[in-house]
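Q: Could you write out the predicted structure for this multi-component system? I'm mainly interested in how the pieces pack against one another.
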Amino acid sequence: MSKEGIYVSEAVIRRLPKYYRYLDDLEKVGIERVSSKELSRRMGLTASQIRQDFNCFGGFGQQGYGYNVSELKKELIKILGLDKRYNLIVIGAGNMGQALANYVAFEKEGFYIRALFDINPKLIGMTIRDIKIYDLDYLEEYIKMNPTDIAVITTPRQEAQAIADRLVTSGIKGIWNFAAVDIEVPQDVVVENAHISDSLFTLSFKTREDIKLI
Amino acid sequence: MSKEGIYVSEAVIRRLPKYYRYLDDLEKVGIERVSSKELSRRMGLTASQIRQDFNCFGGFGQQGYGYNVSELKKELIKILGLDKRYNLIVIGAGNMGQALANYVAFEKEGFYIRALFDINPKLIGMTIRDIKIYDLDYLEEYIKMNPTDIAVITTPRQEAQAIADRLVTSGIKGIWNFAAVDIEVPQDVVVENAHISDSLFTLSFKTREDIKLI
């Protein structure tokens, strides 16, 4: 990988977690090598597209013999940064915030939720699996004292932009946004949307019998 | 709209919920008309792309005067099918299943979770906001007795394909999949993935300083 940076398209980025999941599945059932043909079938891509994807990262695997599953998985772990630890905080300790805090599987991948924040006095002071719910007023001070990689917004949509502004001012560079609104941030801040109601609307739309996908 | 069906691309479908949210926001703050220029700015599209999107559905609004917010919103409600009621069931009454069942906002849009299913004896028989958690063994019989539009899978990934197979056999045509695995279904069944851990991995990847988006 060059020191100047890795140039990669949004489409490739979206496929990386999927590669990782497949390789993890293969490894779990004891498969050591996967042919580029089988990998393409499972990914729904051509072998040449897969080669191009991997070339963004310097390329790996031997085409003729297929790919070594464990080695390729290790490479993807490195690429995705899943060999590191991330400190997360969650703004909004409602249903979604609590579900995320309870979801231990993220920790296996290195993502640790360290604190929740809310404005509801009934929630402030409570803990979820030892993770404390703080008063939202304490947000800036908390971030100053505790290095935080990613902030998760699970507030009502009307609050989301104001929260994002406070996070950006506090120096947060990664925001995972569950609020059903598109927040605006400076260019050096990454926002990843998990708009789950959009996903539901899309599904109900596609189940309409008169809709034909082109 | 023609009786033969509406031909629409995946990209347009993905934008529909976003249009709907923006118009809803505008309506809430009392804005009656929106220029195509302002709509494009907020959607991050050109005015011509927006016109093309709307043309899939017969086109609406008067270009010169902009769009009437309430009328356009009403059209989008019809297109997205948000003027109808949908019966949902959730397979897996863990953190995510419970969070979804507690999330009342879906009901405002016409999506009603009617039942949850689990294999955990501690959960079976419990209710969440009057929504009962049933034994997974009862799944097929429940669907036979209760018209169900959408089934939500929130089980561990290893169980997801088997559950999907049972849902398909029971005649379910829409599956909302939260399990971190790509399930396979026949062509006449629609699957919408909400792979939230993929979304988190993508975010952490993008926060890497050496990554340049092309």
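A: Regarding packing and overall arrangement: Chain A touches chain B through 62 residues (CB under 8 Å).
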